[in-house]
Amino acid sequence: MADTNRRKLLTRLTIGASAAFLAGCDKISQSAAGSDFLKKGSDLAYKVQRLLAGRNALVPEFSVADIAPVFRANGTLNPGTADYNAHATNDFRDWRIKVGGLVEHPFEVSMADLRAMPARTQITRHDCVEGWSCIGQWTGAPLRPILARAKPKENARYVLFHCADNMSSDANDQQLYYETLDLVEATHPQTILAYDLNGKPLPIANGAPVRLRAERQLGYKMAKYVNGIELVESFANIRGGNGGYWEDQGYTWWAGI
Ligand SMILES: Nc1nc2c(c(=O)[nH]1)N[C@H]1C(S)=C(S)[C@@H](COP(=O)(O)O)O[C@H]1N2
Ligand SMILES: [Mo]
Fold this sequence. Notes:
By secondary structure, the protein is of the alpha+beta class. It has one domain: Oxidoreductase, molybdopterin-binding domain (Sulfite Oxidase, Chain A, domain 2). Helices cover 28% and strands 26% of the residues. The protein contains seven helices and ten strands. The strands form two sheets. Strands 2-1-10-5-6 form a five-stranded mixed β-sheet. Strand 1 and strand 2 form a beta hairpin. Helix 1 (3-23) runs antiparallel to helix 3. The longest helix is centred in the N-terminal third of the chain and has 22 residues, at 32-53. It is globular. It starts with a helix and ends in a 25-residue tail after the last strand. The model is unreliable at 1-32 (pLDDT under 50). The structure holds the ligand Nc1nc2c(c(=O)[nH]1)N[C@H]1C(S)=C(S)[C@@H](COP(=O)(O)O)O[C@H]1N2 and molybdenum atom. Molybdenum atom (MO) binds at residues 74, 128-130, 219-220.
Protein backbone atom coordinates (compact mmCIF):
# COMPACT_ATOMS: atom_id res chain seq x y z
CA MET A 1 0.00 0.00 0.00
CA ALA A 2 1.30 3.45 -0.81
CA ASP A 3 2.23 5.43 2.27
CA THR A 4 -0.52 8.03 1.81
CA ASN A 5 -3.24 5.38 1.33
CA ARG A 6 -2.03 3.57 4.37
CA ARG A 7 -2.17 6.78 6.35
CA LYS A 8 -5.70 7.55 5.13
CA LEU A 9 -6.82 4.12 6.22
CA LEU A 10 -5.05 4.48 9.55
CA THR A 11 -6.55 7.90 10.09
CA ARG A 12 -10.04 6.54 9.53
CA LEU A 13 -9.43 3.52 11.73
CA THR A 14 -7.90 5.38 14.62
CA ILE A 15 -10.17 8.42 14.56
CA GLY A 16 -13.04 5.93 14.73
CA ALA A 17 -11.37 4.06 17.53
CA SER A 18 -10.42 7.09 19.62
CA ALA A 19 -13.85 8.68 19.10
CA ALA A 20 -15.43 5.46 20.34
CA PHE A 21 -13.18 5.50 23.42
CA LEU A 22 -13.75 9.15 24.12
CA ALA A 23 -17.48 9.16 23.59
CA GLY A 24 -17.87 7.15 26.77
CA CYS A 25 -14.79 8.59 28.40
CA ASP A 26 -16.47 10.35 31.29
CA LYS A 27 -18.27 7.24 32.41
CA ILE A 28 -15.65 4.62 31.60
CA SER A 29 -12.70 6.37 33.19
CA GLN A 30 -14.41 6.54 36.55
CA SER A 31 -13.91 2.84 37.19
CA ALA A 32 -10.47 1.28 37.57
CA ALA A 33 -11.40 -1.39 35.04
CA GLY A 34 -12.50 1.34 32.65
CA SER A 35 -9.23 3.23 32.74
CA ASP A 36 -7.38 -0.04 32.35
CA PHE A 37 -9.47 -0.70 29.25
CA LEU A 38 -8.67 2.79 27.94
CA LYS A 39 -4.97 2.23 28.54
CA LYS A 40 -5.02 -1.12 26.74
CA GLY A 41 -6.77 0.43 23.74
CA SER A 42 -4.18 3.18 23.70
CA ASP A 43 -1.27 0.73 23.97
CA LEU A 44 -2.64 -1.36 21.12
CA ALA A 45 -3.24 1.65 18.85
CA TYR A 46 0.31 2.79 19.68
CA LYS A 47 1.89 -0.53 18.74
CA VAL A 48 -0.19 -1.04 15.60
CA GLN A 49 0.50 2.46 14.33
CA ARG A 50 4.21 2.22 14.98
CA LEU A 51 4.29 -1.05 13.09
CA LEU A 52 2.38 0.21 10.06
CA ALA A 53 3.27 3.86 9.80
CA GLY A 54 7.01 3.76 10.50
CA ARG A 55 9.07 6.21 12.48
CA ASN A 56 9.25 9.00 9.93
CA ALA A 57 6.03 8.62 7.89
CA LEU A 58 4.75 12.12 7.16
CA VAL A 59 1.17 13.32 7.49
CA PRO A 60 -0.26 14.98 4.36
CA GLU A 61 0.53 18.64 3.83
CA PHE A 62 -1.96 20.91 2.09
CA SER A 63 -1.80 23.90 -0.25
CA VAL A 64 -2.17 27.58 0.56
CA ALA A 65 -5.70 27.46 -0.92
CA ASP A 66 -6.74 24.98 1.80
CA ILE A 67 -5.83 27.27 4.74
CA ALA A 68 -8.85 28.20 6.88
CA PRO A 69 -9.39 32.01 7.01
CA VAL A 70 -9.32 31.89 10.80
CA PHE A 71 -7.63 29.11 12.73
CA ARG A 72 -9.97 28.04 15.46
CA ALA A 73 -8.68 28.34 19.02
CA ASN A 74 -9.52 25.93 21.81
CA GLY A 75 -8.75 25.30 25.48
CA THR A 76 -6.88 28.17 27.10
CA LEU A 77 -7.30 31.32 24.98
CA ASN A 78 -5.06 33.49 27.16
CA PRO A 79 -3.04 32.33 30.20
CA GLY A 80 -3.82 35.76 31.67
CA THR A 81 -1.39 35.61 34.59
CA ALA A 82 0.51 38.73 35.62
CA ASP A 83 3.74 37.08 34.42
CA TYR A 84 2.30 36.10 31.05
CA ASN A 85 0.70 39.51 30.55
CA ALA A 86 4.06 41.17 31.19
CA HIS A 87 5.67 38.94 28.53
CA ALA A 88 2.88 39.74 26.07
CA THR A 89 3.25 43.50 26.65
CA ASN A 90 6.95 43.10 25.94
CA ASP A 91 6.25 41.19 22.68
CA PHE A 92 7.70 38.07 24.33
CA ARG A 93 11.28 39.37 23.95
CA ASP A 94 12.23 37.87 27.35
CA TRP A 95 10.35 34.58 26.91
CA ARG A 96 12.64 31.59 27.37
CA ILE A 97 12.27 27.89 26.83
CA LYS A 98 14.35 25.96 29.34
CA VAL A 99 15.64 22.70 27.89
CA GLY A 100 16.71 20.34 30.66
CA GLY A 101 16.05 17.21 32.62
CA LEU A 102 17.95 14.10 31.54
CA VAL A 103 20.37 15.89 29.21
CA GLU A 104 24.13 16.44 29.14
CA HIS A 105 23.81 20.11 28.14
CA PRO A 106 20.84 22.01 29.57
CA PHE A 107 20.30 25.40 27.92
CA GLU A 108 17.73 28.13 27.36
CA VAL A 109 16.41 29.51 24.09
CA SER A 110 14.86 32.91 23.56
CA MET A 111 12.38 33.60 20.79
CA ALA A 112 15.16 35.34 18.85
CA ASP A 113 17.33 32.19 19.20
CA LEU A 114 14.44 30.04 18.01
CA ARG A 115 13.74 32.26 15.00
CA ALA A 116 17.44 32.16 14.06
CA MET A 117 17.40 28.34 13.87
CA PRO A 118 16.64 26.45 10.64
CA ALA A 119 12.87 26.65 10.13
CA ARG A 120 10.20 24.42 8.66
CA THR A 121 6.84 25.55 7.29
CA GLN A 122 3.99 23.06 6.98
CA ILE A 123 0.30 23.32 6.08
CA THR A 124 -1.47 20.64 8.06
CA ARG A 125 -4.83 19.63 9.43
CA HIS A 126 -5.39 19.89 13.18
CA ASP A 127 -7.86 17.36 14.58
CA CYS A 128 -9.40 18.01 17.98
CA VAL A 129 -11.08 15.14 19.84
CA GLU A 130 -14.06 17.41 20.34
CA GLY A 131 -14.84 16.75 16.67
CA TRP A 132 -13.51 19.68 14.69
CA SER A 133 -10.60 20.07 12.26
CA CYS A 134 -8.85 23.10 10.89
CA ILE A 135 -6.09 23.61 8.31
CA GLY A 136 -3.33 26.08 9.08
CA GLN A 137 0.21 26.96 8.06
CA TRP A 138 2.78 26.61 10.81
CA THR A 139 6.36 27.83 10.84
CA GLY A 140 8.81 26.88 13.54
CA ALA A 141 12.03 25.21 14.54
CA PRO A 142 12.17 21.43 14.23
CA LEU A 143 12.54 19.91 17.69
CA ARG A 144 15.02 17.24 16.66
CA PRO A 145 18.15 19.44 16.41
CA ILE A 146 17.19 21.21 19.64
CA LEU A 147 17.07 17.89 21.47
CA ALA A 148 20.31 16.82 19.79
CA ARG A 149 21.99 19.98 21.05
CA ALA A 150 20.87 19.16 24.60
CA LYS A 151 22.27 15.61 24.25
CA PRO A 152 19.65 13.41 25.92
CA LYS A 153 21.12 10.91 28.35
CA GLU A 154 20.86 7.18 27.74
CA ASN A 155 17.84 6.79 30.03
CA ALA A 156 15.77 9.69 28.57
CA ARG A 157 12.59 8.27 27.03
CA TYR A 158 9.99 11.05 26.94
CA VAL A 159 9.93 14.76 26.26
CA LEU A 160 7.78 16.73 28.68
CA PHE A 161 6.47 20.13 27.62
CA HIS A 162 5.77 22.68 30.35
CA CYS A 163 3.17 25.37 29.62
CA ALA A 164 2.39 28.75 31.16
CA ASP A 165 -1.39 28.34 31.51
CA ASN A 166 -3.13 27.23 34.68
CA MET A 167 -6.08 24.97 33.87
CA SER A 168 -7.62 25.59 37.29
CA SER A 169 -9.81 28.65 37.69
CA ASP A 170 -8.42 28.90 41.25
CA ALA A 171 -5.09 30.79 41.15
CA ASN A 172 -3.99 29.02 44.35
CA ASP A 173 -4.41 25.64 42.70
CA GLN A 174 -1.56 25.13 40.20
CA GLN A 175 -2.72 22.84 37.38
CA LEU A 176 -0.39 23.96 34.62
CA TYR A 177 -1.03 22.38 31.23
CA TYR A 178 1.64 19.85 30.28
CA GLU A 179 2.17 17.12 27.72
CA THR A 180 4.60 14.35 26.85
CA LEU A 181 5.77 12.72 23.63
CA ASP A 182 8.05 9.75 23.20
CA LEU A 183 11.35 10.34 21.41
CA VAL A 184 10.06 8.98 18.10
CA GLU A 185 7.25 11.58 17.92
CA ALA A 186 9.46 14.30 19.37
CA THR A 187 12.15 13.82 16.70
CA HIS A 188 9.72 13.31 13.79
CA PRO A 189 10.48 15.73 10.90
CA GLN A 190 7.06 17.44 11.23
CA THR A 191 7.41 18.03 14.97
CA ILE A 192 8.24 21.71 15.40
CA LEU A 193 8.18 24.49 17.96
CA ALA A 194 5.90 26.81 16.02
CA TYR A 195 6.05 30.60 16.38
CA ASP A 196 4.16 31.68 13.24
CA LEU A 197 0.64 30.80 12.13
CA ASN A 198 -0.31 31.63 8.54
CA GLY A 199 2.81 33.78 8.16
CA LYS A 200 2.23 35.94 11.26
CA PRO A 201 3.40 35.64 14.86
CA LEU A 202 1.27 33.13 16.72
CA PRO A 203 -1.83 34.81 18.22
CA ILE A 204 -2.19 34.53 21.99
CA ALA A 205 -5.28 32.33 21.56
CA ASN A 206 -3.22 29.79 19.60
CA GLY A 207 -0.30 29.61 22.04
CA ALA A 208 1.92 32.69 21.73
CA PRO A 209 4.81 32.97 21.61
CA VAL A 210 5.50 29.29 20.88
CA ARG A 211 3.55 26.04 20.74
CA LEU A 212 4.26 22.48 19.83
CA ARG A 213 3.09 21.01 16.53
CA ALA A 214 3.29 17.22 16.56
CA GLU A 215 1.38 16.60 13.38
CA ARG A 216 0.74 12.87 13.79
CA GLN A 217 -1.16 13.49 17.01
CA LEU A 218 -4.54 14.83 18.11
CA GLY A 219 -4.85 18.46 19.15
CA TYR A 220 -4.48 18.02 22.89
CA LYS A 221 -0.89 16.78 22.47
CA MET A 222 0.14 20.10 20.91
CA ALA A 223 1.09 22.13 23.95
CA LYS A 224 0.64 25.91 23.67
CA TYR A 225 2.54 28.59 25.68
CA VAL A 226 5.62 26.33 26.00
CA ASN A 227 8.26 27.55 28.46
CA GLY A 228 10.06 24.33 29.29
CA ILE A 229 11.17 21.10 27.66
CA GLU A 230 12.26 18.37 30.04
CA LEU A 231 13.66 14.96 29.16
CA VAL A 232 12.36 12.28 31.52
CA GLU A 233 12.68 8.55 31.88
CA SER A 234 9.07 8.01 32.94
CA PHE A 235 6.02 10.16 33.65
CA ALA A 236 4.53 7.73 36.18
CA ASN A 237 5.43 10.00 39.10
CA ILE A 238 4.73 13.32 37.43
CA ARG A 239 1.43 15.05 38.26
CA GLY A 240 -1.44 12.56 37.75
CA GLY A 241 1.00 10.04 36.25
CA ASN A 242 -0.62 9.80 32.81
CA GLY A 243 1.67 12.04 30.79
CA GLY A 244 -0.49 15.09 30.22
CA TYR A 245 -3.16 17.39 31.59
CA TRP A 246 -5.96 15.78 29.54
CA GLU A 247 -4.50 12.31 29.99
CA ASP A 248 -4.85 12.84 33.76
CA GLN A 249 -8.57 13.50 33.10
CA GLY A 250 -8.91 10.20 31.20
CA TYR A 251 -7.83 10.87 27.59
CA THR A 252 -5.47 8.30 26.11
CA TRP A 253 -1.76 9.07 26.15
CA TRP A 254 -1.35 7.73 22.62
CA ALA A 255 -3.25 10.14 20.41
CA GLY A 256 -1.86 9.15 17.01
CA ILE A 257 -4.00 9.90 13.95
N1 LIG B 1 -1.16 25.01 27.02
C1 LIG B 1 -2.24 24.51 26.42
N2 LIG B 1 -2.05 23.78 25.32
C2 LIG B 1 -3.13 23.24 24.67
C3 LIG B 1 -4.45 23.40 25.17
C4 LIG B 1 -4.61 24.19 26.34
O1 LIG B 1 -5.73 24.42 26.83
N3 LIG B 1 -3.48 24.73 26.94
N4 LIG B 1 -5.52 22.81 24.51
C5 LIG B 1 -5.21 21.70 23.60
C6 LIG B 1 -6.29 21.33 22.71
S1 LIG B 1 -7.51 20.30 23.31
C7 LIG B 1 -6.30 21.67 21.39
S2 LIG B 1 -7.47 21.12 20.31
C8 LIG B 1 -5.29 22.59 20.87
C9 LIG B 1 -5.98 23.84 20.37
O2 LIG B 1 -5.06 24.66 19.69
P1 LIG B 1 -5.62 26.00 19.07
O3 LIG B 1 -6.10 26.85 20.21
O4 LIG B 1 -4.51 26.61 18.30
O5 LIG B 1 -6.79 25.61 18.19
O6 LIG B 1 -4.32 22.99 21.81
C10 LIG B 1 -3.97 22.01 22.75
N5 LIG B 1 -2.90 22.53 23.55
MO1 LIG C 1 -8.58 19.47 21.42
